[in-house]
Amino acid sequence: MALIEQVMHEVDEVMSLVDESQIDDAEKVIQKDQRIFVLGAGRSGLMAKGFAMRLMHIGYTVFVIGETITPSIQAGDVLVSVSGSGKTGMVVEPTEKAKTNGVKVVAITSNSESPLVAKLGDAVIVVPGATKAGDGVQSIQLLSTLFDQSVHITLDVLCLKLSRRDHISNETAKATHSNME
Amino acid sequence: MALIEQVMHEVDEVMSLVDESQIDDAEKVIQKDQRIFVLGAGRSGLMAKGFAMRLMHIGYTVFVIGETITPSIQAGDVLVSVSGSGKTGMVVEPTEKAKTNGVKVVAITSNSESPLVAKLGDAVIVVPGATKAGDGVQSIQLLSTLFDQSVHITLDVLCLKLSRRDHISNETAKATHSNME
Amino acid sequence: MALIEQVMHEVDEVMSLVDESQIDDAEKVIQKDQRIFVLGAGRSGLMAKGFAMRLMHIGYTVFVIGETITPSIQAGDVLVSVSGSGKTGMVVEPTEKAKTNGVKVVAITSNSESPLVAKLGDAVIVVPGATKAGDGVQSIQLLSTLFDQSVHITLDVLCLKLSRRDHISNETAKATHSNME
Amino acid sequence: MALIEQVMHEVDEVMSLVDESQIDDAEKVIQKDQRIFVLGAGRSGLMAKGFAMRLMHIGYTVFVIGETITPSIQAGDVLVSVSGSGKTGMVVEPTEKAKTNGVKVVAITSNSESPLVAKLGDAVIVVPGATKAGDGVQSIQLLSTLFDQSVHITLDVLCLKLSRRDHISNETAKATHSNME
Question: pTM for the complete prediction?
Fold first, then answer.
């Protein structure tokens, strides 16, 4: 079997295990009158950035933790934290601090037993792809590749739901897309 | 039909149209004794970064155009350029310049008629997902979402092929993964 | 003479040649009810980012061209473009495009004869530090180091003027500073 | 007195308090056969990036913690950590971890009593500019502005010393400078 097919088989399996009602729960937490912050390390962080960029396209005020113009996060804000293992220090520690300060947390992880889920998530989306910590559906791919792929698609489904709820067309999103490329 | 299912149907369709022999061609261009540079704008740029990070994990000398410690690109280097439309100015212009200077180009695009393919690619991978310019398989998702998802998986298949060719195990990759998270 | 002293002599010389009334002109262009975008390449780009971060601290809506959540720039927005030579393609081309679209431009450069000044700046601050293109006050330091140092201080003086005009105290700025470090 | 003059007076004062022999100590730790990593948060992080970029220009293998292609840091590597207060969690914690693993640390801070100096630095450069934590020479400028400015110049002096030691000319540095801008 060709390698593309084997990899797609894995992605299909993980996505069939994602509970769409959890995406709906996350959708309810994310509202236009709130500021949305995203947080992730490594390739999970890149997926978080891709999500933030699309949220911007559909009209949200959104910031990436660690980028230049990100202000302090405050009570009433929403933090979307992505960590395959649910244990990454650079994700869990700031999320704990934010939670304590009254920030609402959307936790995205492969590990439903992790601190990110057990203690921190106001909404939780479990994406059970293989991670480098050994969580989730097993994979022929390296490290957390399967988790990254599945998180990417999961967050895009969330964006699609948000754009439909908010009546944002492709044309509207296009007008907000960076015009300096 | 649930939205996850609809989206996966789209991704499955695009991936079934990716020609695995084109991934093999790209694999041949990417060699350990060369420096690999990646280039992309917006969400395509994030996919390029995810690819670069994984190349680093499997032992390549790799740089992201626009990041802090990226040196000048020279004859003999390899440039992997990602653009859905194959026309993004910030991708095509530097790629042309690099090509003129003797750099080998791997072009990743949805648009097989674009300048990136027609004039620049020493190897070309066509990933026919919908883009914001209207290329590729149509999609219910916004802008170039379907292209981004499919490029992500395509580049991961390329990484998997490279890691097998180079005999890099999951453990070896883990040891190179950032330990400061 | 110690090296610190020699370098400070250079910085002092350049800063004595910066015309403070040009900083005042830039101050007038930058208003709280407008969106401010910043643009620069290489180390000039890092100086532009430092400026953007401080603008955020003092309450501006500000974006860095090329970062994740930067939307399209529109008529009525302000673009602060930094280029030592005033000729960097990745700065001048987008600035031209923005200018054509009705964006107001603040140009920061060492080269008062450059396209950035001659054609594009609604306000111009000339910071005549040595650049890698050979402009400005000569320097024992490499490439555009002296320009970078002087731009850094010049943009901080502009921030100080803005914060005083807008009555932003250190405490207010501190409250906006990222609390996730 | 014009504001430029007042600010330059502050920078001159801080730089007169930087002990050039501490820069010489740092120079000894930084060697071409080692990998150099840099770490900093916020505007200090931008200064660390500017330093990394220049180290690359003069021929070092250098990585920015948090950027895409940064590998794991190992015994024998060098970590340059910048924190005004010397207490920033996102700087001190990874530096402690690195130190424990046999990494050599160059600590740059305003606060000579801080954990970064007391416990972690193999070489220490104290740059006593005002920080947002209240360290150092007092300033009319906001937050850690005076520290940032002085760190910028201090690290550039270190680069100048390194380039002279290693016989790197302006022309050689220019050839390594990114040619994709």
Answer: 0.97
